[in-house]
Amino acid sequence: MAPTIPPLKDKSLLIDRAFVNSQWVPSESGKTFEVTDPSTGVVVGTCPECDVSDTEAAIDAAANAFKTFRATTARQRSDMLRKWHQLMLDNAEDLAILITMENGKPLADARGEVKYASDFLLWFAEEAPRIYGSTIPASVGGKRILTVKEPIGVCGLITPWNFPAAMVTRKAAPAIAAGCTVVVKAPGETPLSSLALAELARRAGIPAGVFNIVTTLENTPAVGNALCTHPKVKKVSFTGSTAVGKLLMKQSSDTLKKLSMELGGNSPFIVFDDADLDAAVEGALMSKFRSSGQTCVCANRIYVQRGILPAFGKKFVERVRRYKLGSGFDPSATHGPLIHARAVDKVDSHVRDAEAKGAQIALGGHRMTTDADPGRQGGRGGHFYPLTVLLDATPEMLVAREETFGPVAALFPFETEQEVLAMANASEVGLAGYFFSRDVQRCWRVAEAMEVGMVGINTGIISDPASPFGGVKQSGFGREGSALGIDEYLTVKSMTFGGVEVRP
Questions:
Q1: CA distance 289 to 407
Q2: Which of 102, 189, 262, 488 is catalytic?
Q3: Is the pTM higher than 0.90?
Q4: Is 262 in the active site?
């Protein structure tokens, strides 16, 4: 039997309604969908199956609220975000339980996500009063030029399921700090965390219509299209696959919306022979197996210089053997399930392809039987796949060409720096990359040569509210977090004053 889900201290945070204009509302159709625990398949909640009409109602509420919210002072918006941040900390354990209930990640990881998510609220609370314009010397006499930054308007925010709290605050916090209003399309797999955040936003005093959430599972394409085509929505921010990002861009083209796209990755992780081997192993473990490999910046291709590959592989496999799969509520479990059966199918297809093309399975690598499934409960197994290590991986394998998004670590040998950089950059996407080396000249050289938006040098963890998050190539454009993140929700207006006389 799977561990019992701990009760919430504040049961009002488990919500089964959408949030529009500070009201908890059902879908107009009355339809709902089930939210399940991916470690057991047990239903943990229901949410409204919102459609286009529900989405349009949320957009109208946001557009009406923007008329007055845009005039609030930066300090007022900062204070709201600070209160929201504190309420997240005050309710951190309940939020973590909700994340684990619907996402499956271990409770310890969920607690870390709550802290990470709340940090975006605090960061952008501090950025709100620092939305500065500029003065520009004119090229002709008698004129003065200055710029101001203004909120862009209603923003459609489409968030993923892998970080159901942090991806909401990473988008909503800068938007609200800038003076925008938002409509969040919560992920159908993990809407409960988003709705709990909405309740805390309400308690923090964020005005009606400023922060709205629609929930949907089957109607996701129609709701996404509504956000992208509605003329009142001026900005869309999306985190998800490259294929869906391209579709949303096409849908947004008729209204020329401002876009931020954080799309798929295929992160290379390089270990040079001058690296601190133990540190490199730990870095690779953290990068690869965080959230059971279900992160867009996790190591997807681990390149190890041939001379140290046997030692690295041995240490790496020994460390992975210590991990334990299980329910996120099992305190002994280090890793949880994949989000759904389709994810399990994709991971297994990558392993089978690699095996057929010559990879050696050093650990894991086979679907779990129902009896061996740690999420089995009442005959309903969870979506688990064993932590897997593949040796002798090659560039033609799917694990090299596609994002696995699961707990498969594929180790590729390489000989020279030039060779590994060519392999690392041989991808249409470029979100994150990592490498370990103690040669400072190589560190500069490789970091500058990698075709990615973010580089981890001697570390496997790069996410930080203070650091700009985003990619290049087909990993998208725009940056989230950092001092740059708020600019995604602002427009620049220049003002030129003429007839300014300079009198002696």
A1: 6
A2: 262
A3: yes
A4: yes
